[in-house]
Design brief:
The protein has about 210 residues and is α/β, with parallel strands linked by helices. About 45% of the residues lie in helices and about 10% in strands. A 5-stranded parallel β-sheet has the order 2-1-3-4-5, with helices on both faces. Helix 3 packs parallel to helix 5 and helix 7 packs across helix 8.
Length: about 210
């Protein structure tokens, strides 16, 4: 387990991270953040950790940049977990193509945000891939998602971050089950899909075994 007692763990991202944390499921949301928090607490009851959810539904890296100082840097994280990119891609396949973020802008913006957070707070990073719950890797949106995930993988290496391969986690379950078991729109998971994400995070944090 790489988290240490007394540390502050901040999650930031889009609706997958938000998951009602500003509404009925405050303050952690009803998704993977809440599951990671609950399972780490249960498996490592001696740890005293502070958990913060700063996900906002609909966000792209552009939105993240606009609130980064308040919702990332000013939170003074010891660990900052970032999962962003789904909307950056998805918007290009819907009725809001002007809100899609090209991959070069995505990489440039995300790199700058991560550098700002590390330089200002000294935090360690957890970087999670964008994903699409779609088994056909040749499908256009899935192919784009894989390209953006490769950017995250590269940034994880660049920043010596913990990398959470969320697409690979879904690919494992999609090998033996239909996409409709995990989400009805290929993006927003049912609870079982959030459990797939949570397990990927726990594995990356070396928190999969009982203390």
């Amino acid at each position: 387990m790489i988290l240490r007692t007394g540390q502050r763990v901040v999650f930031i991202g889009d609706s997958i991270t938000d998951c009602g944390r500003r509404d009925a499921a405050a303050p952690y949301g009803s998704g993977y953040v809440s599951l990671v928090r609950a399972l780490v607490t249960a498996r490592f009851p001696g740890l005293e950790l502070e958990w913060v959810n700063r996900g906002v539904s609909g966000d792209t890296v552009r939105h993240l940049a606009a609130r980064w100082e308040d919702d990332a840097v000013a939170q003074h994280p010891d660990w900052l977990s970032v999962m962003i990119g789904i909307n950056d891609i998805w918007r290009g396949y819907g009725d809001r193509p002007d809100e899609a973020v090209p991959i070069d802008e995505y990489e440039r913006t995300l790199r700058g945000l991560l550098r700002r957070a590390v330089d200002a707070t000294g935090c360690r990073l957890v970087l999670a891939d964008p994903y699409l719950i779609e088994p056909d890797r040749a499908e256009p949106q899935r192919a784009d998602t894989d390209r953006y995930a490769a950017v995250v993988d590269g940034l994880a290496k660049e920043f010596d971050a913990v990398h959470v391969p969320t697409q690979a986690a879904f690919d494992r379950v999609l090998a033996v089950s239909p996409a409709t078991r995990w989400a009805d729109d290929r993006v927003h998971p049912f609870l079982a899909g959030h459990a797939v994400l949570a397990e990927a995070f726990l594995t990356a944090l070396d928190a999969t075994v009982t203390a």
